[in-house]
Write a structure and sequence with these properties.
heterodimer; A: alpha/beta; 6-stranded mixed β-sheet; 10 helices; B: 618 residues; alpha/beta; 8-stranded mixed β-sheet
């Protein structure tokens, strides 16, 4: 990286569970505003990497710097407070709450009024409520969720729930968004829509995103750069065209699919 | 940045101003400056735009268009869903003496290209990335289009096309220019000629390419005043703008009537939230096309089927009773007991139902743009939503006939409005004359001559009857009459509408020309049939799958049998086939207003039709 230091700097982390090494000396630098993809087959260590960044797991070796601040050893809720939000592969929404309520819950850590102020619901609490409701509405507008605003999440179709999940992550005002297979289980149309939102998040909101996926085509059109993991090791890192031409990548895991893309 | 709304138009008198639509806007900006003109829902909250702001923004858009060379006689398009900016752009274009051209936002790129190139539009207001992408697809196909102003530029930042510009910047530029020339609008308004074309409204064209009907302020101003008087519309009324604004029917409600009376126009959040927006706005004046009423009817029935026993029983008892009482009332046979039952129904069922539909406050619910089944009208009258059917055409700048609370006959489209005279040609075609008759088709003299004769009569192409009180009844389209092998003249619309009274049938195409009996192709209503299938524990994956289930075929055959009771013997549908896929605008089966192109459909499914006639009538 030339000039400014990257927003997220993962340096040589290793994560072991007993005798199993999930991540073996992976480094990754993500500049501000970038859309970084991490791909690899099942068990390559992609989700483990996310778990390390969001402080769910603690790597035994290495460091993770976010805006120059060390994340290894931090508590998970602190990390959320620093501005790292995560969209889960298996949705983490409250099914009985409405879309709007779910989004407001996503903003909970941003509330500054205390519980007794909220109970009295004085001027301060009211100001807070209006401020957060407004921001939640902006996200609803951004994610085009108007028609679902007042419906409980549990009755919504899967594709829409995924959108709500992303909206909830956005509501946390993140500086870094971790997206774990955002297109998994979506049909063609919904996948295109999801890709559109990710580009809009980058262009309109300027939020840095790290995206895990195993669909190479989905990632190729979207990401600024791609890191490839295999058996816990990073085997390639670069722009989509560089990565797709990397012989090690083609051989190690991408095989025929990448050969086809490279040939196009 | 609020300017003095009165100063720039101080020297123009009321008569001059009220002769054109942009002039009327200026007039209201003076009369009702701080009163609300428009409301739109933004971030979940209804926000107001006053008449002064409405005028100010329209003026700024006009000034910025002027800067880009739009002049009297020029053309500029609008390709967007309904929103306040649509109206600013429309009236700004007209204020320059140019013509506004509405383009359906559902149109595929090729249709967009046709309308813009046929009208030779030099500027286009475009809603968002989805619409801009159509223009990128057209690429160099529109050499005359120089400026594309985008309401929501999100996602288009990376586009290199130099014609693109964000609406906000465009508006700001106009405001700045206006500050230096406060007299700009006054000059423009004074120069307007109310008898020169100011709008091009493209007809949907169930046959052939769309044609651009030229309308001028004279076509709409006085006729709208007559409509307002007749329907008793005032500044206290509220409408929801939700049908496409490029259609002349929505223009009456969102532009012409507000500029005649000062009523408030509401814009909902999106096309997906119409139901909820309706409930929140609760409009006092409302126009639905038959499709909307059919859908409301179907969704209510489906909802009721899955509600509790008590609710369901009450609902069906009072609804049936309501329809029956309405029929008695029409024949003048109401008794005091009837009134009592009606009152009970009001309290127990109808009020809640009207609130659910968002029509509790609605004084004049209307239906137009296409014929509606009389049975559906009866049903709605029965539940206390008295839909008044009207008649209009693009070539009539909107509506020429209206039923109304004081003058109403079921099955007719009502008497003509003030200033319109009617008569029937020898073959029964309805001929109309009056101020609202359009000026002609743009760049198409021949088509114009076929529509308007030397004496100024508009040949509507509809066949009808006029009764002793002057009420008009439409019986069919002149060109689309079915003549059976037995020599009977039938109207396909009547048959199709009867089928569409079924909650399970969305579209129908009646066939029978030169045939021994009438048959029909139908498209099932995916939601309601899907709901039915779920109740029957019938698994399905998609429309084609559902449409081919033997159980569904049986259901539809039974429904058709039931609907046949509404038809005369020769009209009855003897055979029916379900279309294997949904009709779509992109492959030409539907027009932009979602009307079925019978010819295209019957050609495409010729083998299905042939199959029905192979074995003879069942």
């Amino acid at each position: 990286m030339t000039g400014a230091s990257p927003l997220l700097d993962v340096r040589g982390i290793e994560l072991r569970f007993g005798g199993v090494t999930a991540i073996n000396g992976v480094s990754l630098a993500v500049p501000k505003g970038h859309l970084q993809a991490v791909i690899g087959p099942n068990g390559a260590g992609k989700t483990s990497l996310f778990n390390c960044i969001s402080a769910v797991y603690r790597p035994q070796v290495g460091s993770i710097l976010f805006e120059g601040r060390e994340l290894v050893g931090e508590k998970a809720h602190k990390v959320a407070g620093y501005g790292i939000a995560r969209m889960f592969q298996n949705l983490g929404l409250f099914e009985n709450l409405t879309v709007l309520e779910n989004l407001l819950v996503g903003r909970h850590h941003l509330y500054t009024s205390s519980w007794w102020q909220d109970m009295i619901f004085g001027a301060r609490a009211r100001r807070e409520e209006i401020k957060h409701r407004r921001r939640a509405e902006e996200i609803i507008d951004f994610m085009q969720l108007e028609r679902y605003r007042k419906l409980p999440v549990g009755i919504l179709p899967y594709g829409v729930r995924k959108r709500v999940e992303l909206a909830r992550a956005l509501c946390m005002e993140p500086k870094l968004l971790l997206l774990d297979e955002p297109a998994a289980g979506l049909n063609q149309e919904e996948t295109e829509l999801m890709a559109r939102y990710m580009l809009d998040i980058k262009e309109e909101l300027g939020i840095t995103q790290i995206l895990i996926d195993h669909d190479l085509r989905f990632v190729m059109d979207l990401a600024d750069s791609i890191a490839v993991l295999d058996f816990g090791k990073k085997i390639a890192d670069g722009t989509p065209s560089e990565v797709s031409k990397n012989p090690q990548v083609i051989e190690a895991y991408l095989g025929a699919a990448a050969a086809a893309v490279a040939a196009e | 940045m609020v300017m003095d709304g009165t100063a720039p138009i101080a020297s123009l008198d009321e008569k001059t101003l009220r002769a054109t639509l942009p002039g009327r806007l200026a007039w209201f900006a003076k009369q009702r400056a701080d009163k609300p003109a428009l409301r739109h829902k933004h971030l979940g909250i209804w926000e107001e735009i006053t008449w002064a702001q409405y005028y100010e923004r329209t003026s700024a858009v006009a000034r910025a268009l002027w800067e880009r060379g739009l002049r009297s006689g020029g053309h500029a398009g609008i390709l967007s869903d309904n929103r306040p900016e649509w109206l600013f752009a429309d009236l700004a274009i007209q204020a320059l003496g140019a013509r506004s051209v509405g383009v359906y936002q559902t149109s595929p790129a090729a249709d967009v290209q046709y309308v813009l190139s046929h009208s030779r539009s030099t500027a286009l207001f475009c809603e968002d990335q989805e619409q801009v992408d159509k223009l990128m697809e057209i690429g160099g196909g529109l050499p005359e289009l120089k400026h594309i102003i985008v309401f929501e530029p999100r996602g288009t930042r990376g586009y290199a096309d130099p014609r693109l510009m964000a609406f906000d910047d465009f508006l700001a530029e106009g405001m700045k220019l206006l500050e230096r020339e406060p007299g700009f609008m006054q000059e423009r308004l004074a120069a307007l000629d109310p008898s020169s074309a100011s709008m091009i409204v493209y007809t949907s064209g169930t046959t052939g390419q769309p044609k651009g009907a030229m309308l001028c302020s004279n076509n709409v101003c006085e006729p709208t005043d007559a409509i307002a008087k007749m329907l008793n519309v005032t500044e206290k009324d509220a409408v929801l703008s939700y049908l496409p604004l490029c259609h002349v029917a929505e223009k009456i409600y969102s532009v012409n009537l507000p500029l005649a009376t000062g009523l408030v126009v509401h814009f909902g959040e999106s096309i997906d939230t119409v139901q909820e927006d309706l409930r929140e706005v609760s409009p006092t004046v409302f126009l639905g096309v038959p499709r909307i009423w059919e859908k409301m009817h179907a969704s209510l029935l489906i909802r009721m089927k899955s509600s509790s026993w008590l609710k369901r029983t009450l609902f069906f008892y009072f609804v049936n009773k309501g329809v029956e009482l309405e029929r008695k009332k029409r024949h003048g046979k109401s008794s005091p007991l009837d009134a009592l039952i009606r009152a009970a129904g009001d309290v127990l069922v109808f009020r809640a139902l009207q609130e659910r539909l968002g029509l509790r406050r609605c004084r004049v619910p209307g239906s137009g743009a296409a014929p509606i089944a009389p049975e559906l009208l009866e049903w709605f009258h029965g539940v206390g939503v008295p839909i008044y059917e009207g008649f209009g055409m693009t070539e009539l700048a909107g509506g020429s006939h209206f039923n109304r609370p004081s003058m109403y006959k079921l099955g007719t489209v009502g008497p003509s409005i003030e200033g319109v005279t009617q008569r029937l040609a020898e073959d029964g075609e309805i001929l109309l004359r009056g101020k609202c008759v359009f000026m002609g088709y743009l760049h198409n003299e021949e088509a114009t001559r076929a529509m308007i004769d030397e004496e100024g009569w508009l040949h509507t192409g509809d066949i009808g009857e006029i009764d002793a009180d002057g009420y008009l009844k439409i019986t069919g389209r002149k060109k689309e009459i079915i003549i059976t092998a037995g020599g009977k003249n039938l109207s396909p619309e009547r048959i199709e509408n009867a089928l569409k009274t079924s909650a399970f049938i969305k579209e129908a195409v009646a066939i029978g020309d030169k045939r021994n009996f009438v048959s029909a192709l139908v498209q099932i209503e995916y939601d309601t049939v899907g709901d039915w299938a779920q109740r029957q524990s019938l698994p399905y994956t998609s429309y084609p799958d559902l449409a081919s289930k033997p159980e569904v075929i049986k259901l539809i055959e039974e429904e058709v049998e039931r609907c046949n009771a509404l038809l005369g013997r020769v009209e009855q549908v003897r055979k029916v086939k379900i279309l294997p896929k949904e009709l779509h605008q992109d492959n030409g089966e539907l027009t932009a207003t979602q009307k079925v192109r019978r010819k295209v459909v019957s050609e495409r499914y010729a083998d299905l039709i042939a199959g029905m006639y192979r074995g003879g009538a069942s």
